[in-house]
């Protein structure tokens, strides 16, 4: 990068600058003109004070299909309809020449493993080919995706290609959102939704083809689907089963599916230059931003894709990039920043697919979703910090948390490949070549081996699958994790001592929620507050995107937020108050605006709540309200979340009651401001950032635990020892 000046005034975006102007791009200083000898109006030099040094390591091999690139460039000049254009585009996809071969392979084999590079057309084209070949005359074609965003965006694309309205012939189904109709024959859905469909239709009778797509992602639901569809295929010879994946590790899938044939779609990939940093980066977010800005001012046109770990990080990065480029105005080319993550509202998601205007550069800030599930046009540069946010599960304590973890080599290569789709690309890895070789695992551990299995066990039990230890897993979960799940379901009352589903369990399984949330709802029947509890469940389900906090109005936003916490009611009740307040203002946008609440999130909560209300009816729980009886509401919460409880320690931290783990109140919790701190709390989830934090927390009375979960807590667990001497904690106090 420190390769001195460049000549050629035409290419130089700063050519009109007078010598010796300095601009701040955050900490990086750009010096134009130069102090050095070869000063010349057209010569300039960048000095990045915190620039990242990369070394070029190797060039990934791949077919150079330059002539095809040229062919694509020689576009016909006569105007065409959008639909015609799309139809032509379809024919340029790598899968197109194999259409007939693929169709005959599907005809000849019941199960087929399909492998092809990301972007070759598996997801969008295969269901269409099968539709054109008549498979939809006898049933739907279902195509599963590990991610909601992918299911939505891909179905939108396919409906465009077919020239039909989304939700008609082509639709999608994701949790809490069913965009399909009677007409739907191509159905894109999350793998979790197909799993739920099994509950209502164990033979998948309405489908003629099931395509388990992105199989390499090995999500928990995908892995369970493997076992289920394999079984269905045995007694439904008419059902076609396609397992598609972007990686070459297809033998494993083939072995699992009784040696099913593998259909390989030859890839089209341009060479990708890999650059590694010369030393590890302490702050990968900052390094990623600096690298992106370096690319922006130094490299030829082409869009940039940065892999980050989650929404918060993406928002931070967006903010910083905007700050650093602000004020530079026309001195640098326009930089369009596009975030993409699962919770991003649909209309904003569409932005990443819009073509970049001439002269501008797009920077896509994405979670792992862009690794294989989405194809973004025009990406030429990939920045890979080497991390991903992953669920991790401790089977000993039964605790689950989201952890930022290093990616695998397989992931790193997928990420790099994203830059070489439409021409030669470059990938900047923010780690060293040594890190890559020595520290990264070859493959990502399948989710089934690192997650809480309670949800899946409950679903399988409701499907009548009892012998879980002998379920046909491609990679079995640790048996402790299975036992932990059984234990939890037993504690929640979903299973009896023999491991059989109880009435409570049957009701819980109807809700597309984690078992603890479902239990909280089922328990609300007893406490006569189901109306309030489904509101809380809906609000918890939208995640933490309820409030916004504009930079210039932070104080106002915080005041508005704290108003819902008055009386230290706890975060759950605060969520209820937010919803009910909004409702009493006719679900208005103005109310949201005044309270710094995101309208979209609230609408989503309302949607989810409506569905939960329908499910209440289905499991015959009466809709009852006891708005003023906060104790009843808190007891329902406790009935679902009693395994998630903590007790205050002298130093202000909490210790979880069953497993003695040290945890803290999340700063966003209303209770974080409470003086004195609540002694006993029940929490919704743990998140690990700098510390293990409890998020969405409510105070509880320890006696409730023995009353509600006598099989789980004994009086000695919940004795309030704070007035007695404490053997530990004192000397450990942060304050002392
Ligand atoms: O599934 P696979 O990665 O093999 O490819 P795909 O998702 O079917 O994408 C094939 C092509 O469809 C991409 O190269 C894009 O040109 C286009 N596509 C799009 O424009 N917008 C989408 N939302 C999805 C795909
Ligand atoms: Mg795909």
UniProtKB/TrEMBL annotation:
Signal peptide range in chain numbering: none
Annotated EC: 3.6.4.13
Ranges where the Helicase ATP-binding domain occurs: 103-266
Keyword Hydrolase: yes
Keyword terms, alphabetized: ATP-binding, Coiled coil, Helicase, Hydrolase, mRNA processing, mRNA splicing, Nucleotide-binding, Spliceosome
GO cellular component: catalytic step 2 spliceosome
Alphabetical GO biological process terms: mRNA processing; RNA splicing
Assigned protein family: Belongs to the DEAD box helicase family. DEAH subfamily. PRP2 sub-subfamily.
Protein name: RNA helicase
Parent-protein start and end of this portion: 325 to 1060 of 1060
